[in-house]
Write a structure and sequence with these properties.
Elements: E1 3-7, E2 13-17, H1 22-30, E3 38-42, H2 48-60, E4 63-69, E5 72-78, E6 86-87, H3 89-92, H4 102-109, E7 111-115, H5 128-136, E8 140-144, E9 147-151, E10 159-161, H6 167-177, E11 183-187, H7 193-204, E12 208-210, E13 216-220, E14 228-231, H8 236-249, E15 252-256, H9 264-273, E16 275-279, E17 283-288, E18 297-298, H10 310-318, E19 323-327, H11 336-343, E20 347-351, E21 354-358, E22 367-369, H12 373-385, E23 389-393, H13 396-401, H14 405-411, E24 415-419
Parallel strand pairs: 2-15, 3-14, 6-7, 10-11, 18-19, 22-23
Antiparallel strand pairs: 1-23, 1-24, 3-5, 4-5, 7-9, 8-9, 11-13, 12-13, 15-17, 16-17, 19-21, 20-21
Helix pairs in contact: 1-2, 1-7, 4-6, 5-6, 6-7, 8-10, 8-12, 10-12, 11-12
The protein binds ligand EPZ.
Protein backbone atom coordinates (compact mmCIF):
# COMPACT_ATOMS: atom_id res chain seq x y z
CA UNK A 1 0.00 0.00 0.00
CA UNK A 2 1.26 3.51 -0.81
CA UNK A 3 2.20 5.89 1.92
CA UNK A 4 3.31 9.52 2.07
CA UNK A 5 6.62 10.64 3.59
CA UNK A 6 6.73 14.30 4.66
CA UNK A 7 9.65 16.33 6.01
CA UNK A 8 7.92 19.18 7.88
CA UNK A 9 8.95 22.76 8.50
CA UNK A 10 8.90 24.31 5.02
CA UNK A 11 6.50 27.24 4.53
CA UNK A 12 4.35 26.67 1.41
CA UNK A 13 4.57 29.34 -1.26
CA UNK A 14 3.51 29.78 -4.86
CA UNK A 15 0.43 29.05 -6.93
CA UNK A 16 -1.79 25.95 -6.99
CA UNK A 17 -4.56 25.06 -9.45
CA UNK A 18 -7.74 23.82 -7.83
CA UNK A 19 -9.49 20.83 -9.45
CA UNK A 20 -13.20 20.39 -10.14
CA UNK A 21 -15.37 19.60 -7.13
CA UNK A 22 -15.68 15.91 -6.19
CA UNK A 23 -19.03 16.47 -4.48
CA UNK A 24 -20.45 18.25 -7.52
CA UNK A 25 -19.00 15.84 -10.08
CA UNK A 26 -20.48 12.73 -8.40
CA UNK A 27 -24.18 13.75 -8.54
CA UNK A 28 -23.73 15.39 -11.96
CA UNK A 29 -22.22 12.19 -13.40
CA UNK A 30 -25.31 10.32 -12.15
CA UNK A 31 -27.56 12.90 -13.87
CA UNK A 32 -26.47 11.26 -17.17
CA UNK A 33 -29.00 8.52 -16.36
CA UNK A 34 -31.83 11.04 -16.78
CA UNK A 35 -31.51 11.38 -20.57
CA UNK A 36 -30.91 9.30 -23.71
CA UNK A 37 -28.82 12.17 -25.06
CA UNK A 38 -25.18 12.96 -24.37
CA UNK A 39 -24.04 14.94 -21.34
CA UNK A 40 -20.59 16.52 -21.80
CA UNK A 41 -18.78 17.49 -18.59
CA UNK A 42 -15.54 19.49 -18.26
CA UNK A 43 -13.28 20.29 -15.30
CA UNK A 44 -13.99 16.79 -13.97
CA UNK A 45 -11.46 15.98 -11.20
CA UNK A 46 -9.23 12.91 -11.64
CA UNK A 47 -10.12 11.13 -8.41
CA UNK A 48 -10.63 7.58 -7.29
CA UNK A 49 -14.28 8.27 -6.46
CA UNK A 50 -14.88 9.64 -9.97
CA UNK A 51 -13.32 6.50 -11.47
CA UNK A 52 -15.60 4.38 -9.27
CA UNK A 53 -18.68 6.37 -10.34
CA UNK A 54 -17.72 5.95 -14.01
CA UNK A 55 -17.30 2.16 -13.58
CA UNK A 56 -20.72 1.93 -11.92
CA UNK A 57 -22.45 3.98 -14.63
CA UNK A 58 -20.80 1.89 -17.38
CA UNK A 59 -22.02 -1.29 -15.66
CA UNK A 60 -25.54 0.18 -15.71
CA UNK A 61 -25.15 0.85 -19.44
CA UNK A 62 -24.10 4.48 -19.75
CA UNK A 63 -21.61 4.81 -22.61
CA UNK A 64 -18.71 6.97 -21.42
CA UNK A 65 -15.66 8.44 -23.15
CA UNK A 66 -12.98 10.46 -21.38
CA UNK A 67 -10.59 13.00 -22.90
CA UNK A 68 -7.79 14.67 -20.97
CA UNK A 69 -6.04 17.75 -22.27
CA UNK A 70 -3.45 19.00 -19.78
CA UNK A 71 -5.07 19.58 -16.42
CA UNK A 72 -8.61 19.51 -17.80
CA UNK A 73 -10.60 16.29 -18.19
CA UNK A 74 -13.74 16.17 -20.32
CA UNK A 75 -16.16 13.26 -20.08
CA UNK A 76 -19.01 12.42 -22.49
CA UNK A 77 -21.81 10.26 -21.11
CA UNK A 78 -24.76 8.82 -23.08
CA UNK A 79 -27.67 7.28 -21.25
CA UNK A 80 -29.21 5.87 -24.44
CA UNK A 81 -28.44 2.18 -23.87
CA UNK A 82 -29.09 1.91 -20.15
CA UNK A 83 -30.57 -1.48 -19.32
CA UNK A 84 -29.00 -2.93 -16.15
CA UNK A 85 -30.81 -1.03 -13.43
CA UNK A 86 -28.66 -2.35 -10.58
CA UNK A 87 -26.00 -0.74 -8.39
CA UNK A 88 -24.27 -3.77 -6.81
CA UNK A 89 -22.90 -3.97 -3.27
CA UNK A 90 -19.26 -4.25 -4.33
CA UNK A 91 -19.53 -0.85 -6.04
CA UNK A 92 -21.67 0.89 -3.43
CA UNK A 93 -19.62 -0.28 -0.44
CA UNK A 94 -16.51 1.51 -1.75
CA UNK A 95 -18.37 4.71 -2.52
CA UNK A 96 -21.55 5.70 -0.67
CA UNK A 97 -22.33 8.41 -3.21
CA UNK A 98 -23.38 5.55 -5.54
CA UNK A 99 -26.78 5.96 -3.86
CA UNK A 100 -27.18 8.90 -6.25
CA UNK A 101 -28.08 6.55 -9.13
CA UNK A 102 -31.30 5.59 -7.33
CA UNK A 103 -33.33 8.73 -7.99
CA UNK A 104 -32.40 9.12 -11.67
CA UNK A 105 -32.91 5.41 -12.53
CA UNK A 106 -36.29 5.33 -10.79
CA UNK A 107 -37.41 8.58 -12.44
CA UNK A 108 -36.50 7.59 -15.99
CA UNK A 109 -37.01 3.78 -15.98
CA UNK A 110 -39.54 3.23 -13.19
CA UNK A 111 -37.34 0.78 -11.34
CA UNK A 112 -33.96 0.46 -9.64
CA UNK A 113 -32.11 -1.91 -7.34
CA UNK A 114 -29.39 -0.23 -5.36
CA UNK A 115 -27.36 -1.81 -2.59
CA UNK A 116 -27.74 -0.13 0.77
CA UNK A 117 -24.45 1.69 1.33
CA UNK A 118 -22.67 0.33 4.37
CA UNK A 119 -21.70 2.71 7.13
CA UNK A 120 -18.27 4.28 6.96
CA UNK A 121 -15.55 5.41 9.35
CA UNK A 122 -17.25 8.71 10.15
CA UNK A 123 -20.72 7.45 10.91
CA UNK A 124 -23.72 5.22 10.25
CA UNK A 125 -24.65 7.27 7.20
CA UNK A 126 -28.28 6.06 6.80
CA UNK A 127 -30.24 6.80 3.62
CA UNK A 128 -33.72 6.80 5.17
CA UNK A 129 -34.39 10.37 4.01
CA UNK A 130 -33.66 9.40 0.39
CA UNK A 131 -36.11 6.48 0.66
CA UNK A 132 -38.85 8.40 2.46
CA UNK A 133 -38.69 11.17 -0.14
CA UNK A 134 -39.02 8.73 -3.04
CA UNK A 135 -41.93 7.01 -1.29
CA UNK A 136 -43.60 10.42 -0.94
CA UNK A 137 -43.30 10.66 -4.74
CA UNK A 138 -45.15 7.36 -5.13
CA UNK A 139 -42.28 4.87 -5.27
CA UNK A 140 -42.82 1.39 -3.85
CA UNK A 141 -39.66 0.45 -2.00
CA UNK A 142 -38.74 -2.90 -0.48
CA UNK A 143 -35.46 -3.51 1.33
CA UNK A 144 -34.32 -7.11 0.93
CA UNK A 145 -30.95 -8.79 1.36
CA UNK A 146 -29.22 -5.43 1.74
CA UNK A 147 -30.71 -3.95 -1.44
CA UNK A 148 -33.18 -1.12 -2.00
CA UNK A 149 -35.68 -2.39 -4.61
CA UNK A 150 -37.68 0.59 -5.91
CA UNK A 151 -40.54 0.69 -8.41
CA UNK A 152 -42.81 3.42 -9.74
CA UNK A 153 -44.87 3.51 -12.94
CA UNK A 154 -44.23 7.24 -12.94
CA UNK A 155 -43.12 9.30 -9.94
CA UNK A 156 -45.49 12.10 -9.05
CA UNK A 157 -44.60 15.49 -7.62
CA UNK A 158 -44.87 15.87 -3.86
CA UNK A 159 -44.14 18.26 -1.00
CA UNK A 160 -41.21 16.75 0.92
CA UNK A 161 -39.98 18.13 4.24
CA UNK A 162 -36.53 16.71 5.04
CA UNK A 163 -36.15 15.77 8.75
CA UNK A 164 -32.44 16.58 8.51
CA UNK A 165 -30.46 18.68 6.03
CA UNK A 166 -29.01 16.05 3.70
CA UNK A 167 -26.76 16.97 0.75
CA UNK A 168 -27.10 13.79 -1.32
CA UNK A 169 -30.66 13.33 -0.04
CA UNK A 170 -31.58 16.70 -1.55
CA UNK A 171 -29.66 15.86 -4.75
CA UNK A 172 -31.28 12.41 -5.19
CA UNK A 173 -34.79 13.77 -4.75
CA UNK A 174 -34.13 16.83 -6.93
CA UNK A 175 -32.97 14.55 -9.78
CA UNK A 176 -35.96 12.23 -9.33
CA UNK A 177 -38.37 15.19 -9.36
CA UNK A 178 -37.13 16.50 -12.73
CA UNK A 179 -39.05 13.73 -14.56
CA UNK A 180 -41.92 13.27 -12.10
CA UNK A 181 -45.52 14.08 -13.02
CA UNK A 182 -46.28 17.42 -11.40
CA UNK A 183 -44.59 19.78 -8.97
CA UNK A 184 -42.20 18.80 -6.16
CA UNK A 185 -41.19 21.07 -3.29
CA UNK A 186 -38.23 19.96 -1.17
CA UNK A 187 -38.21 21.85 2.13
CA UNK A 188 -35.34 21.95 4.64
CA UNK A 189 -33.20 21.28 1.55
CA UNK A 190 -29.39 21.39 1.65
CA UNK A 191 -27.97 24.72 0.43
CA UNK A 192 -24.42 23.54 -0.40
CA UNK A 193 -22.87 25.04 -3.57
CA UNK A 194 -22.61 21.50 -4.99
CA UNK A 195 -26.42 21.21 -4.83
CA UNK A 196 -26.63 24.47 -6.80
CA UNK A 197 -24.09 23.16 -9.34
CA UNK A 198 -26.20 20.03 -9.89
CA UNK A 199 -29.33 22.16 -10.30
CA UNK A 200 -27.59 24.36 -12.87
CA UNK A 201 -26.56 21.27 -14.86
CA UNK A 202 -30.09 19.82 -14.69
CA UNK A 203 -31.54 23.15 -15.86
CA UNK A 204 -29.09 23.08 -18.80
CA UNK A 205 -30.60 19.65 -19.57
CA UNK A 206 -34.11 21.13 -19.63
CA UNK A 207 -35.20 20.67 -16.03
CA UNK A 208 -37.47 23.27 -14.45
CA UNK A 209 -35.88 24.00 -11.04
CA UNK A 210 -35.98 27.12 -8.87
CA UNK A 211 -34.76 27.84 -5.35
CA UNK A 212 -31.61 25.68 -5.44
CA UNK A 213 -29.25 27.13 -2.83
CA UNK A 214 -32.14 28.02 -0.57
CA UNK A 215 -33.83 25.66 1.89
CA UNK A 216 -36.83 25.24 -0.44
CA UNK A 217 -36.24 23.79 -3.91
CA UNK A 218 -39.15 23.84 -6.38
CA UNK A 219 -39.14 21.42 -9.35
CA UNK A 220 -41.76 21.16 -12.12
CA UNK A 221 -41.51 17.71 -13.72
CA UNK A 222 -41.02 17.46 -17.51
CA UNK A 223 -41.46 14.55 -19.92
CA UNK A 224 -37.74 14.15 -20.59
CA UNK A 225 -34.38 15.85 -20.36
CA UNK A 226 -31.94 16.45 -23.22
CA UNK A 227 -28.14 16.50 -23.39
CA UNK A 228 -26.01 19.47 -22.37
CA UNK A 229 -22.44 20.62 -21.86
CA UNK A 230 -21.51 21.61 -18.34
CA UNK A 231 -18.35 22.68 -16.48
CA UNK A 232 -18.03 21.34 -12.92
CA UNK A 233 -17.52 24.01 -10.23
CA UNK A 234 -14.17 24.27 -8.41
CA UNK A 235 -13.67 22.14 -5.31
CA UNK A 236 -14.27 24.36 -2.26
CA UNK A 237 -12.98 21.72 0.19
CA UNK A 238 -9.73 21.25 -1.74
CA UNK A 239 -9.51 25.07 -1.77
CA UNK A 240 -10.04 25.24 2.00
CA UNK A 241 -7.52 22.45 2.58
CA UNK A 242 -4.74 24.27 0.71
CA UNK A 243 -5.55 27.57 2.45
CA UNK A 244 -5.31 25.88 5.87
CA UNK A 245 -2.03 24.20 4.82
CA UNK A 246 -0.63 27.60 3.78
CA UNK A 247 -1.64 29.20 7.08
CA UNK A 248 -0.35 26.22 9.09
CA UNK A 249 3.11 26.30 7.49
CA UNK A 250 3.40 30.08 7.59
CA UNK A 251 3.51 30.50 3.85
CA UNK A 252 1.99 32.60 1.07
CA UNK A 253 -0.14 30.67 -1.42
CA UNK A 254 -2.42 31.67 -4.28
CA UNK A 255 -5.20 29.31 -5.40
CA UNK A 256 -6.24 29.64 -9.05
CA UNK A 257 -9.14 28.07 -10.98
CA UNK A 258 -11.17 28.34 -7.77
CA UNK A 259 -14.09 30.63 -6.85
CA UNK A 260 -14.47 33.11 -4.00
CA UNK A 261 -17.81 33.22 -2.20
CA UNK A 262 -18.23 29.45 -1.71
CA UNK A 263 -16.34 29.01 1.55
CA UNK A 264 -16.78 32.29 3.43
CA UNK A 265 -17.22 30.54 6.79
CA UNK A 266 -13.78 28.95 6.35
CA UNK A 267 -12.18 32.24 5.26
CA UNK A 268 -13.70 33.99 8.29
CA UNK A 269 -12.11 31.42 10.63
CA UNK A 270 -8.74 31.77 8.87
CA UNK A 271 -8.93 35.55 9.36
CA UNK A 272 -9.78 34.97 13.05
CA UNK A 273 -6.68 32.74 13.25
CA UNK A 274 -4.60 35.65 12.02
CA UNK A 275 -4.13 34.93 8.31
CA UNK A 276 -4.25 37.68 5.65
CA UNK A 277 -6.58 36.87 2.71
CA UNK A 278 -7.28 38.56 -0.61
CA UNK A 279 -9.55 37.13 -3.32
CA UNK A 280 -10.88 37.77 -6.80
CA UNK A 281 -13.41 36.08 -9.09
CA UNK A 282 -11.44 32.85 -9.51
CA UNK A 283 -8.45 33.18 -7.14
CA UNK A 284 -7.79 33.36 -3.39
CA UNK A 285 -4.47 34.38 -1.85
CA UNK A 286 -3.49 33.67 1.76
CA UNK A 287 -0.47 34.92 3.66
CA UNK A 288 0.28 34.16 7.29
CA UNK A 289 0.33 37.44 9.16
CA UNK A 290 2.07 36.85 12.50
CA UNK A 291 1.56 33.98 15.00
CA UNK A 292 -1.66 31.98 14.61
CA UNK A 293 -4.37 32.23 17.23
CA UNK A 294 -6.56 29.30 18.36
CA UNK A 295 -10.05 29.45 16.80
CA UNK A 296 -13.29 27.93 18.10
CA UNK A 297 -15.71 26.44 15.57
CA UNK A 298 -18.84 24.41 15.24
CA UNK A 299 -19.69 22.52 12.03
CA UNK A 300 -23.17 22.89 10.49
CA UNK A 301 -24.86 22.76 7.07
CA UNK A 302 -23.93 25.42 4.48
CA UNK A 303 -23.40 28.36 4.71
CA UNK A 304 -21.99 27.58 8.18
CA UNK A 305 -18.56 25.99 8.73
CA UNK A 306 -18.40 22.74 6.67
CA UNK A 307 -17.84 19.42 8.44
CA UNK A 308 -15.47 18.49 5.59
CA UNK A 309 -13.05 21.18 6.84
CA UNK A 310 -13.16 20.27 10.55
CA UNK A 311 -10.24 17.82 10.57
CA UNK A 312 -8.00 20.16 8.56
CA UNK A 313 -8.72 23.09 10.88
CA UNK A 314 -7.99 20.94 13.93
CA UNK A 315 -4.45 20.43 12.62
CA UNK A 316 -4.10 24.21 12.40
CA UNK A 317 -5.29 24.62 16.00
CA UNK A 318 -2.69 22.08 17.23
CA UNK A 319 0.09 24.71 17.10
CA UNK A 320 -1.98 27.90 17.45
CA UNK A 321 -1.63 30.13 20.50
CA UNK A 322 -4.31 29.35 23.08
CA UNK A 323 -7.07 26.76 23.46
CA UNK A 324 -9.65 25.94 20.77
CA UNK A 325 -13.03 24.27 21.21
CA UNK A 326 -14.28 22.44 18.11
CA UNK A 327 -17.74 20.85 17.89
CA UNK A 328 -18.79 18.40 15.16
CA UNK A 329 -22.58 18.44 14.75
CA UNK A 330 -23.02 16.56 11.44
CA UNK A 331 -21.39 13.14 11.88
CA UNK A 332 -21.22 11.06 15.03
CA UNK A 333 -17.67 9.79 14.63
CA UNK A 334 -15.60 12.35 12.81
CA UNK A 335 -12.72 12.70 15.29
CA UNK A 336 -10.69 9.69 14.07
CA UNK A 337 -7.80 12.04 13.29
CA UNK A 338 -7.47 13.02 17.00
CA UNK A 339 -5.62 9.82 18.02
CA UNK A 340 -3.23 10.24 15.11
CA UNK A 341 -2.63 13.95 15.78
CA UNK A 342 -1.81 13.01 19.37
CA UNK A 343 0.93 10.71 18.05
CA UNK A 344 2.48 13.83 16.54
CA UNK A 345 2.44 15.52 19.96
CA UNK A 346 -0.87 17.39 19.82
CA UNK A 347 -2.69 18.13 23.09
CA UNK A 348 -6.35 17.26 22.37
CA UNK A 349 -9.12 16.08 24.68
CA UNK A 350 -12.42 14.77 23.26
CA UNK A 351 -15.71 14.87 25.14
CA UNK A 352 -18.61 13.53 23.02
CA UNK A 353 -18.76 15.57 19.82
CA UNK A 354 -16.51 18.31 21.18
CA UNK A 355 -12.70 18.45 21.04
CA UNK A 356 -10.56 20.80 23.14
CA UNK A 357 -7.21 21.55 21.55
CA UNK A 358 -4.41 23.23 23.50
CA UNK A 359 -1.83 24.73 21.16
CA UNK A 360 1.68 23.28 21.60
CA UNK A 361 4.97 24.89 20.59
CA UNK A 362 5.95 22.07 18.25
CA UNK A 363 4.67 18.84 16.69
CA UNK A 364 7.15 16.01 16.12
CA UNK A 365 7.05 13.77 13.05
CA UNK A 366 5.85 10.18 13.53
CA UNK A 367 4.28 7.29 11.67
CA UNK A 368 0.48 7.78 11.47
CA UNK A 369 -2.47 6.17 9.72
CA UNK A 370 -5.21 7.74 7.60
CA UNK A 371 -8.71 6.63 8.58
CA UNK A 372 -10.98 8.63 6.26
CA UNK A 373 -10.68 11.21 3.51
CA UNK A 374 -10.56 14.45 5.43
CA UNK A 375 -8.69 12.96 8.42
CA UNK A 376 -5.93 12.09 5.93
CA UNK A 377 -5.79 15.73 4.82
CA UNK A 378 -5.50 16.74 8.47
CA UNK A 379 -2.50 14.44 8.93
CA UNK A 380 -0.83 15.84 5.80
CA UNK A 381 -1.18 19.37 7.18
CA UNK A 382 0.14 18.29 10.58
CA UNK A 383 3.05 16.52 8.87
CA UNK A 384 3.89 19.73 7.00
CA UNK A 385 3.97 21.57 10.35
CA UNK A 386 5.90 18.92 12.35
CA UNK A 387 9.59 18.70 13.06
CA UNK A 388 11.23 15.82 11.20
CA UNK A 389 9.61 13.08 9.15
CA UNK A 390 5.97 12.01 9.22
CA UNK A 391 4.81 8.98 7.25
CA UNK A 392 1.10 8.45 6.59
CA UNK A 393 -0.23 4.95 5.85
CA UNK A 394 -3.46 4.01 4.01
CA UNK A 395 -3.44 7.09 1.81
CA UNK A 396 -5.94 5.49 -0.57
CA UNK A 397 -8.38 7.48 1.57
CA UNK A 398 -6.66 10.66 0.40
CA UNK A 399 -6.71 9.67 -3.28
CA UNK A 400 -10.52 9.45 -3.16
CA UNK A 401 -10.87 13.21 -2.79
CA UNK A 402 -7.61 14.95 -3.72
CA UNK A 403 -6.06 14.93 -7.19
CA UNK A 404 -2.29 14.23 -6.87
CA UNK A 405 -2.05 16.13 -3.60
CA UNK A 406 1.65 15.38 -3.17
CA UNK A 407 2.43 16.85 -6.62
CA UNK A 408 0.48 20.01 -5.86
CA UNK A 409 2.14 20.36 -2.45
CA UNK A 410 5.62 19.73 -3.91
CA UNK A 411 4.99 22.53 -6.41
CA UNK A 412 4.38 24.76 -3.37
CA UNK A 413 7.75 23.78 -1.92
CA UNK A 414 6.68 20.99 0.44
CA UNK A 415 9.12 18.15 1.05
CA UNK A 416 6.69 15.29 0.40
CA UNK A 417 6.90 12.06 -1.59
CA UNK A 418 4.75 9.02 -2.24
CA UNK A 419 6.42 5.76 -1.19
CA UNK A 420 5.12 2.65 -2.99
C1 LIG B 1 -22.31 14.76 1.67
O1 LIG B 1 -22.51 13.49 2.25
C2 LIG B 1 -20.86 14.80 1.23
N1 LIG B 1 -20.63 13.75 0.22
C3 LIG B 1 -19.95 14.59 2.44
O2 LIG B 1 -18.61 14.73 1.99
C4 LIG B 1 -20.24 15.70 3.45
O3 LIG B 1 -19.46 15.48 4.60
C5 LIG B 1 -21.74 15.68 3.82
O4 LIG B 1 -22.54 15.80 2.63
C6 LIG B 1 -22.12 16.82 4.75
O5 LIG B 1 -21.80 18.04 4.16
C7 LIG B 1 -21.03 13.98 -1.06
O6 LIG B 1 -21.59 15.01 -1.38
C8 LIG B 1 -20.75 12.88 -2.04
P1 LIG B 1 -25.67 14.19 4.47
P2 LIG B 1 -24.01 12.99 2.58
O7 LIG B 1 -26.74 13.33 3.87
O8 LIG B 1 -24.95 13.55 1.61
C9 LIG B 1 -27.70 12.17 8.25
C10 LIG B 1 -16.38 14.18 1.80
O9 LIG B 1 -15.50 14.21 2.66
N2 LIG B 1 -28.59 11.50 7.27
O10 LIG B 1 -25.71 15.65 4.22
O11 LIG B 1 -23.94 11.50 2.75
C11 LIG B 1 -26.26 11.74 8.13
O12 LIG B 1 -26.02 10.57 8.88
C12 LIG B 1 -17.73 13.62 2.14
O13 LIG B 1 -16.26 14.63 0.64
C13 LIG B 1 -29.62 10.68 7.73
O14 LIG B 1 -29.79 10.52 8.95
O15 LIG B 1 -24.26 13.65 3.99
C14 LIG B 1 -25.52 12.94 8.68
O16 LIG B 1 -25.52 12.87 10.10
C15 LIG B 1 -17.75 12.98 3.50
N3 LIG B 1 -30.44 10.07 6.83
C16 LIG B 1 -26.39 14.14 8.25
O17 LIG B 1 -27.66 13.58 7.94
C17 LIG B 1 -30.29 10.23 5.48
O18 LIG B 1 -31.08 9.67 4.70
C18 LIG B 1 -25.87 14.86 7.01
O19 LIG B 1 -25.58 13.88 6.04
C19 LIG B 1 -29.24 11.06 5.02
C20 LIG B 1 -28.41 11.68 5.93
Amino acid sequence: MDRLAIQGGTPLSGEVRISGAKNAALPILCASLLTADTLTLSNVPRLHDVTTAIKLLEQIGVRISTRSSGADTTIELSGRDVENLVAPYEMVKTMRAAILVLGPMLARFGEASVSLPGGCAIGLRPVDLHIRGLQAMGAEIAIEHGYIHARAKRLRGARIVMDLVSVTGTENLMMAATLADGVTLIENAAREPEVVDLAKCLIAMGAKISGAGSDAVHIVGVANLHGASYRIMPDRIESGTFLVAAAATGGAVTLVNTRSGMLDAVLDKLLDAGAKIESGEDWIRLRKNGPLRAVNLRTAPYPAFPTDMQAQFMALNCMAAGTAIMTETIFENRFMHVQELRRLGADIEVEGNTAVIKGVAQLDGARVMATDLRASASLVIAGLMANGETTIDRIYHLDRGYEHIEDKLSQLGANIRRVH
